[in-house]
C-alpha cells in the first residue's frame, strides 16, 4: 500500500498541474501535456496511455461529455465544465483520480452546483466506506447526495477495485441496486468515482468509441479518488493529506497504511 500511496501522490500532482492548465484558450491537449510532464518527471508510467489504445495520459471531458473524452485540439471556452481523469503506475501499482472544474466564469449557478455536489458525492462515498459493512453503503451514500442535489448518477458506469491493475473487482456502484454488494475488507483498494449528470443519467458513446456524452446534452461532472482500506482505517491514496481535511466534517480521521 505504501507504493500505491506514492503512485497516488503522483496522480494528485498530475491532476493539480492539469487543472492549472485547464484555462480559457488552452486546448484539452495542453491539459493532458501538463499531466504528462508530472508523470514523466516522477519516473512513473501512465496507465491511461495505450489502455485499449487510448492515446493520452488523461481523459478530458467537456460539458455534456461525462467521461473518457480524448484530449486534442478543442479549445476551452469561458464557463466550460472540464472533467480531468488521470492515473499513474509506480513499480506495478496503480493510482486513479479525477476532478471537475469550471474554466473561467461559471455559465450559471447550476454548473457550480453540479461540480460541487459531485465532489460532495465523492466524499460522502469515501466517508461511508470508512464504516461500511458492504459496498451497498457507499453506493447509497453517493446516490443520496445525487438525489438531494436533484442530479443523476450516470447509469451503467461505476468505480472499481484498483491495485496491480487499474480496473479490478469489485465494481463500486454510484447508486443502489437490488443485488447485494461485496463486503468491505481490510486490504481492499477502491476507486470511488461518482459521475453526476444534470439531466437524466442516460448516455451514449461518440463515434470516437471513447467519449461518453449525456443522452440529453446536459452537463456532467466526475470526481474520483483511490482509497485503501486497512486494519487501522482508510487512507485516500490520491490526496496528499490522505483525505484528512475533507473527512474531518464526517468525523473521520484517515490513517496512513
Ligand atoms: Mg479514473
Ligand atoms: Mg477509475
Key traits:
257 residues, alpha+beta, binds magnesium ion, Creatine Amidinohydrolase, globular, three-stranded antiparallel β-sheet, five-stranded antiparallel β-sheet
Describe this structure in words.
With 257 residues, the chain is α+β, with helices and mostly antiparallel strands. It has a single domain, classed as Creatinase/methionine aminopeptidase superfamily (Creatine Amidinohydrolase, Alpha-Beta Complex), CATH 3.90.230. Helix content is 29%, strand content 25%. The protein contains 5 helices and 14 strands. Strand 6 and strand 7 form a beta hairpin. Helix 1 packs antiparallel against helix 2 and helix 3 packs antiparallel against helix 4. The mean pLDDT is 97. One magnesium ion binds next to strand 3 and strand 4.
Secondary structure topology:
Blueprint: H1 2-21, H2 28-41, E1 58-62, E2 65-67, E3 81-90, E4 93-102, H3 109-131, H4 136-148, E5 152-153, E6 159-161, E7 168-172, E8 189-192, E9 195-197, E10 203-205, E11 212-214, E12 220-222, E13 225-230, E14 233-236, H5 244-247
Antiparallel strand pairs: 1-3, 2-11, 3-4, 5-9, 6-7, 6-8, 8-13, 9-12, 10-11, 13-14
Strand order of the largest sheet: 7-6-8-13-14
CATH superfamily: Creatinase/methionine aminopeptidase superfamily
- The CATH topology comes to Creatine Amidinohydrolase
Got a strand count?
14
Give the N-terminus to C-terminus distance in angstroms: 6 Å
Rg over alpha carbons = 17 Å
> What is the helical fraction, as a range of percent?
25-40%
Q: How would you sum up the major sheet? A: 5 strands, antiparallel
Query: How many helices?
Result: 5
* Ligands, ions, cofactors: magnesium ion
Structural class category: alpha+beta
How many domains in all?
1
Any idea what the CATH architecture is?
A: Alpha-Beta Complex
CATH class: Alpha Beta
What shape does the CA trace take? Answer: globular
Q: What does the average pLDDT come to?
A: 97
| Proportion of residues in extended strands | 15-25%
